[in-house]
Amino acid sequence: MTAPSEAGNGLPATTRSRAVPAALFLATSLLALTAGLPQAQVETAGRVQLAQAERIAFDIPAQPLSSALTSFGRQSGLQVTMDTAIAQGLTSQPLKGSMAPSEALDCLLAGSGLTWLQLDAKTIELRQPQRSGDGALQLSPVRVEGARSADPGKSEGTGSYTIGSSSSATKLDLSIRETPQSVTVMTRQRLDDQGLNEMKDALNQAVGLTLVESGALGTDGNQVYSRGFVLSNFQVNGIPRSTVYGFNDEIADLATYDRVEIVRGSTGLLNGVGDPSASVNLVRKRPTAHFQGYVEGQVGSWDHYRGETDISGPLVENGKLRGRFVTAYQDSDSFIDRLEMDKRVAYGTLEADLSEDTLLTVGLEYQKHNSDQASRGGFPLLYADGTPTDFSRSINSAANWAYFMHDNLTAFGSLEHRFGDGWKVELDIENSWREYDGLLGYGVRGSLNRDGTGMGIWPGRWNSDLEQTSIGVDLSGPYELLGRRHELMVGASGYHAHRKGQDYPLWYLDDYDPSIPNYFTWNGEIAQPALEPTGWSEEKERQYGVYAATRLRPTDALSVILGSRLAKWEQESRSFPDSGASSATKRAENGVLVPYAGIVYDLTDIWSVYASYTSIFKPQSQKNSAGLTLDPLEGNAYEAGVKAEFYNGLLNASFAVFKIEQDNLAVIDPGQFAPDGSQAYRAAQGTTSKGFEVEMNGELMPGWQIGGGYSRAVPEDANGTRLTTNIPKDSFKLFSTYRLPGEWRDLTVGGNLRWQGDAYSQISGAEFRQDDFTIVDLMLRYQLTDNVSAALNLNNIFDEAYLTDLAYYGYWGEPRNAMLSIRATW
Hints:
Blueprint: H1 4-7, H2 13-32, H3 39-51, E1 56-60, H4 65-76, E2 79-80, E3 95-99, H5 101-109, E4 115-120, E5 123-131, E6 137-142, E7 182-186, H6 188-194, H7 199-204, E8 209-213, E9 222-226, E10 229-230, E11 233-236, E12 239-240, E13 257-264, H8 268-271, E14 278-284, E15 292-300, E16 304-314, E17 321-332, E18 340-355, E19 358-372, E20 379-380, E21 403-418, E22 424-446, E23 455-481, E24 484-503, E25 515-516, E26 535-552, E27 558-577, E28 583-602, E29 607-618, E30 633-646, E31 651-663, E32 665-673, E33 679-684, E34 687-701, E35 704-716, E36 730-739, E37 747-756, E38 759-763, E39 766-770, E40 773-783, E41 788-795, E42 803-805, E43 809-812, E44 817-825
Helix pairs in contact: 4-5
Membrane topology: Multi-pass membrane protein
InterPro entries: Beta-barrel_TonB, Beta-barrel_TonB_sf, Plug_dom, Plug_dom_sf, Secretin/TonB_short_N, TonB-dep_rcpt-like, TonB_sidphr_rcpt
Keywords: Cell outer membrane, Ion transport, Iron, Iron transport, Membrane, Receptor, Signal, TonB box, Transmembrane, Transmembrane beta strand, Transport
């Protein structure tokens, strides 16, 4: 395969060939599902159905109309959409009591001048009288984004920093307060407000997570830690990603996602592999029942340019077929010398109502990421004599020919059917084709002398094609037992992941001089090694599991969640060198039982206490100095705390304490290497991590959104010695925006504060320490017209110099920078 600069901008041949049948499948679905009822018939039938629907217990206090309609959508299960700018300044009437949804809507809208129209059984459209040019009274649609019945946690259009419900912890649709684990949601509104386009940036803003960035986008030099351990569990729409290298979504662009849900602690019930740190679930954007869209342009520091479009709505008159199409292109330099990055994103999805109770979804997602003159590491923190170095923040340790490329194509589909009395079954299928190619040449080899000598580059190349096929089926709904109503979820899932590719020389090359004559004056110029394939290798991973969970309600105030997963895991590796004998290894874990238990007790209508337990099981790929793979990570995770839900879920708060116990934790074995030249690890026994987290997300008062909190985690070995000292024990993060009232209602102001405690590392017997530091960001957005807004993000306004990695080599965090965004919506 050629480098990205030679391959052009299109799909690689292997990906293009697989994209054709997926595209044909989408086109066939579009043609086959265009029939339906005339719109007038649907509107009439829907209005009658809403008026005759069963009575619902509503409890919605007087508040801004947009927030009240969001609560109405959550409590009724109906889809309500809204452009919040149109409803600015309107306040709802209080609503409490049992009534039909039509009565509830009339009460909420009393005195607002708005009217409503039901388009189908699950979709409400509000309309606002307006005067035309000849003075005639017309009705224009007002859209207030609430919860879709197909996605009760939808965040887009709500303007909120929290969501109504999440299933990322147990696959039961529970509110944040009802979930007995710590959950953080980076909603669409918050992602847009902070200008967060990349996964790493979104995770870095989440409470309890720490980004260790030590390389350019697309390298494997970046890791995220939670509760003292590396985060490696990623899901998309609840479908787990393989642990095989290249399958996680840590570099994903966020243009195609509605939100990012983060569950801290082990989630083995759904992942099969219980990672003790956290799991990340990316939830894709869905088509909307109304036509909507936006186009956005961004320009920022270091020649950052980005364009993004998003178009969604019904594709046929009766609304039974809906589609959404998202594209994004980004090209940017960096504060790091010579580093250039670009990426392309395309996403298309269709939803079809096969019947009133059956929903079919199909889609394609494509992302390509390039980083040129890119380093996998930073720069030496210490001289050979143990004293600190003093490099500028623009230093780049990459050779001029080094690059990293990721090319990902995913086809997905789901079929959901709703039975009577709240039961539903959902089938999810996904196939992902990926390719990565990295030409390595980064100058962190050796020990730096004060005259600039002693350093060299680590050369090499890795390149592989990957494919993962995943399938899952879930059945959930309520049931009656002993006169009480409870909930049940049962399911089965599995995936098959396959990586194959040619092997190239790494690290130590014959007849090649990696030396850098003078590190202080080096500009990346060094001979490119001739890297010819030395053979090929492949790796396969299979995981299957069945799982179940029930939420028992012994009393109105008490919930008990019990669940378990029975998992089977296999991994097989084969290597076929051009010279020498082939080799194969196989590992398997059968009948692994992962239990889960949680309890939530409501102290009042607002406050709850909770506790949860789950076991930890995680196969590992690290090797010891003898070349043997470490045994799976095993242990237990405990969590307890207090949660509060204010203003009917518009504001969530929590306090959690946790304890994690583990055996076989992979810890770097200093100075030791495996036979293949990689870093050797040892299995540490009796490790623990203890800490606490305080968090608040949502609306403090009308127009005032807040998200953030404080976290502390201290991982230790069996002797009480602190582990991962390069990660701070304590951190505080807080982002908030406020939309001004009255004549200034078109202006929204915001600020972000991140404080991180001190950290240190031991490097060749010497200690390197970074003191605590604080980063401050500012944000302004102005509504130029009803449909056009401009936003300015000023980051690190005090130009704080800080390191994002100090484990072995240093890597600077971003200096002061700015980004201007212009968005037009319709």
